[in-house]
């Protein structure tokens, strides 16, 4: 389940790409096969990093004689262990809402992004996320949970203050919003309620099979109630 549209990042051979907060590798695995690049994933959760590594082990290495490579490390977004201007592209998907001092994370992202580089950031969209907070205190009070709700316009301005140029925006995962509303409403049975399990099956069908019949509904749902908002930026030479 990818939130970032990789084709909007103009990925090319020879680049270095950082997936900040890579989780279990939903973007890392796609990045590795997208071009002849060095892909680096960082996350605070060692268990997630192990799952990312195991995900690579499950698929054949089709790189042949190409120079694809990946690395995984546990690191803090507030103090990235990389030199200035290390990466041509940076992805930060569904991460900033977990970080109290997200402004320092933005400083670090800008520091390690090369001049001319591109950045893609996604966070939960304001109003679908607000409904989750209204429906359940536990949703955002669990350890490591969401500490804030972003408004896309304010987040964009925060990023632009670092002299990054906004290029485009879109929404994603529209069919996921009702799923999370149900989980919040029925929090005590969020893992075994029949209605939630049925909706989960629908989402798995969408992700794994990408059925033609769901595509128009999915696109409309993205626009109306997309669970995530995705912002794209470039770092100009000036």
> If you consult CATH, what is the topology of the domain at 6-125 and 143-173 and 227-234?
Rossmann fold
Alpha-carbon Rg, integer = 18 Å
The low-confidence runs, each spanning 5 or more residues with pLDDT under 50, are none
CATH superfamily of the domain at 6-125 and 143-173 and 227-234: Vaccinia Virus protein VP39
Number of helices: 9
Categorize the overall geometry. Answer: globular
The N- to C-terminal Cα distance equals 35 Å
Features:
about 240 residues, alpha/beta, Rossmann fold, globular
Break the fold down into its secondary structure elements and pairings.
Elements: E1 16-20, H1 28-34, E2 38-43, H2 46-57, E3 69-74, E4 87-93, H3 102-112, E5 113-124, H4 126-135, H5 137-141, H6 152-160, E6 165-172, H7 176-185, H8 194-209, H9 215-225, E7 228-234
Describe the 3D structure.
The structure is a single chain. It contains nine helices and seven strands. The protein has a seven-stranded mixed β-sheet with strand order 3-2-1-4-5-7-6, with helices on both faces. The protein starts with 15 loop residues before the first strand and ends with a strand. Helix 2 (46-57) links the parallel strand 2 (38-43) and strand 3. It has helices at residues 28-34, 46-57, 102-112, 126-135, 137-141, 152-160, 176-185, 194-209, 215-225, and strands at 16-20, 38-43, 69-74, 87-93, 113-124, 165-172, 228-234. The longest helix has 16 residues, at 194-209. It has a domain at 6-125 and 143-173 and 227-234: 3-Layer(aba) Sandwich (Rossmann fold), CATH 3.40.50.150. It is α/β, with parallel strands linked by helices and 238 residues long.
């Amino acid at each position: 389940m990818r939130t970032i549209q990789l084709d909007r990042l103009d990925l090319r051979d020879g680049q270095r790409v950082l997936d900040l907060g890579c989780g279990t590798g939903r973007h890392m695995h796609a990045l590795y096969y997208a071009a002849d690049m060095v892909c680096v994933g960082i996350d605070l959760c060692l268990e997630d990093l192990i799952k990312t590594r195991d995900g690579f082990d499950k698929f054949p290495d089709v790189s042949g004689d190409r120079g694809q490579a990946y690395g995984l490390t546990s690191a803090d977004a507030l103090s990235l262990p990389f030199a200035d201007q290390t990466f041509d592209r940076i992805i930060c998907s569904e991460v900033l809402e977990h970080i109290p001092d997200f402004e320092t994370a933005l400083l670090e992202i800008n520091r390690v992004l090369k001049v001319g580089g591109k950045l893609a950031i996604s966070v939960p969209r304001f109003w679908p996320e607000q409904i989750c907070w209204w429906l359940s205190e536990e949703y955002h009070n669990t350890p490591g949970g969401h500490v804030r709700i972003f408004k896309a316009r304010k987040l964009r301005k925060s990023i632009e203050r670092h002299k990054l140029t906004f290029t485009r925006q879109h929404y994603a995962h529209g069919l996921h919003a009702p799923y999370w509303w149900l989980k919040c409403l029925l929090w005590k049975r969020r893992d075994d309620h029949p209605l939630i399990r049925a909706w989960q099956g629908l989402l798995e069908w969408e992700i794994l099979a990408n059925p033609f019949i769901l595509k128009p509904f999915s696109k409309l749902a993205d626009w109306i109630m997309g669970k995530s908002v995705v912002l794209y930026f470039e770092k100009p030479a000036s």
